[in-house]
Model the fold of this input.
Amino acid sequence: MPRNLRPWLALAAFAAAVLTVLALRPDPEITTPGAATAVSPLTELPTAAPEPLAPPPAALPVPVATPTPFRPALPATAALLAWHDRYLATTPADRPALLPEGLDLAHARRAELAALIRTDPEAALASAYPRARRAELPAAVAAELEDLVSARAELGVIQTCFHAPGAAHDPAEDLYRATVIAGREYRVHTYGSRLGDASLPATSLVGIGLDGHLAISPARLRVLEPGEPGFSAAGLAVEADGRVTVLPSPDDLPAFSAALLATEQNPVVNAADSGAGSSTVSGRPTAAWTQGAKALLVIRVDFSDLVGVPINKFDGNKQITPGLRRQRDQRRLRRRRVHAREQLQYQRRRL
Done:
């Protein structure tokens, strides 16, 4: 055998011996902490069961308007109530001496409340005089209080575009709401979900009015106060559509409120939806009729009793375009507010 092959043969013999020893060696045992049973390397280890998926969130409830509780938001209301208490605590013979003070307070409150109805209808409703106590006031003082309004009537959303050239006007008045109750026209001021309502041919209006302006709540109803006419201790008395209804329990209030909202979507009333409509059917057209770019026909009329020249197309564009932009911005703001409120309600339910 050649000498140079001997080292290679020795290395091959050593490698064969090592492989033989490894092949004959038993498999090692695999153990887990705290377990005494051997597990084969080919055995599948147990795994924890997957956590069940969280159920999808429940559908957000339809918001149900609730009546505004009384709180004297207007200092003048609190002042008149304090005088009212002193008036009742005084003997009948001495009450006439307090009447001038009461009239002064009532006059001041009337002016402040009339302004508040226009600027903050929610605060105005919160500062309405307690209905249960109105009958206790002298007739002269009671005559200065706000009108109590409850009726089923049309609520119109009206957009004005043109004004007399050079005449001062408030741009906020270009879009307003109005109604007619018992033959009297009111400018309507509201808040909350009512701001998103289009014109309604018939809806329950509950609120207070002064000097031709009306503050109404998003709620289509009002819960009666203890002591006022129609209040019932046997159930929950609510006022809506100009009449009082006694519910068996407060738990029936959401269903009653939802029923009032449903009457506004009466298919007979809205029979012209998505249709041509007619003079005998009131309804709303499809969104394509009222949204998007439209061609506008303006007829310039020169009235003989109106001083000045008729409006031209440039002044007309300046008046119309800002109003359309305001409406668009208002719709976007309302959508963001509704989305934020729904998200907050969902988070509260999860907590």
In short: The CA atoms of residues 168 and 306 lie 15 Å apart. The first strand starts at residue 147 and ends at 159. The two ends are 89 Å apart (CA to CA).
